[in-house]
Amino acid sequence: MATKPFIDYDLLNEIITKELKPFVKKVDEEAFYAKRYIETLGKEGFFREEDLSEQDIILKRLAVIEETAKTCMTTAFCIWCHLAATTYITHSENNVLKETVLMKLLNGELLAGTGLSNPLKSFAKLETLHLKAKKVSGGYVINGTLPAVSNIGENHAFAFVAQVDDTAKVMGFVYGDQAGLTLKPRTGYIGVNGSATYCCLFSEVFIPNEQVIATNVDEYIEKIRTRFLAYQIPLALGVTASSVTMMEKLARKHKQLNDNINRFLPIQPDEVKRKNDQLRSRLVEVVSEETLNWDSLLDIRLKSVYLTLEAVQASMLHNGGRGYVKSSVAERKLREAYFLVNLTPTIKHLEVLRNKQEVLISE
Question: How would residue 351 be classed by pLDDT, with cut points 50, 70 and 90?
Answer without folding.
Answer: confident
